[in-house]
Amino acid sequence: MIQGVHAQRVAFVDYEEAAKVFQLRGWAWLGVPGPFSTRWIHLNGTPARDCSLRVTDIHTVKQALACTIQLESREGVPGTPLIRGDLGLAPAPNGNRATRCVLSLQGSASRNLADSSGPSNADASRHLANEYVRSLLEQISGSLERGGTEIRVS
């Protein structure tokens, strides 16, 4: 795995409501159900790719939430990690927590993410991984903004 995978995005949704949805088991508000407690998602990039998303270990860090995610290949051995990282949800700075929150992801990627059949190219794999995590954050923020917060939270 190579380090240097990171992305950040603002979601225009109340932090408190987004935090409730973020903590729901199974993340039914994103993608479609996959095997073994995963969600199938489509990631934009060059090339685009279908992956399984595994979300684990959701916990509070200071005044924010964090979880561990793993994007797994849908081909080959189940559970083969393509990207792993820590996904954070935090209130927007400057007193804007009622109208927006910040999603961020930092992690690592498989060395051969860019070309699984050839020799590893760390820079190409890191670039592609960053495209994929930006796509993931766009989907998460889009889902939260479109009504992920309308899911019944008890």
Structural class based on helices, strands and sheet pairing: alpha+beta
Number of strands: 7
Percentage of residues in strands = 35-45%
Give average pLDDT, whole number. 86
- The CATH architecture comes to 2-Layer Sandwich
Oligomer: single chain
Number of helices: 2
**Helix content class:** 10-25%
How is the largest sheet built, in terms of strand order? 1-7-6-5-4-3-2
Rounded to the nearest angstrom, the radius of gyration is 15 Å
**What is the CATH topology assignment?**
Alpha-D-Glucose-1,6-Bisphosphate, Chain A, domain 4
What number of domains? 1
Low-confidence stretches: none
Question: N-to-C terminal Cα separation, in Å?
Answer: 39 Å
Order of helices and strands: EHEEEEEEH
Task: Write a structural description.
- The protein is built from two helices and seven strands, in the order βαββββββα.
- The protein has one domain: Alpha-D-Glucose-1,6-Bisphosphate, Chain A, domain 4.
- A seven-stranded antiparallel β-sheet has the order 1-7-6-5-4-3-2.
- The chain has 154 residues and is α+β, with helices and mostly antiparallel strands.
- The longest helix has 25 residues.
- The protein is globular and about 45 Å long.
Entry keywords:
154 residues; alpha+beta; Alpha-D-Glucose-1,6-Bisphosphate, Chain A, domain 4; 7-stranded antiparallel β-sheet; 21% helix
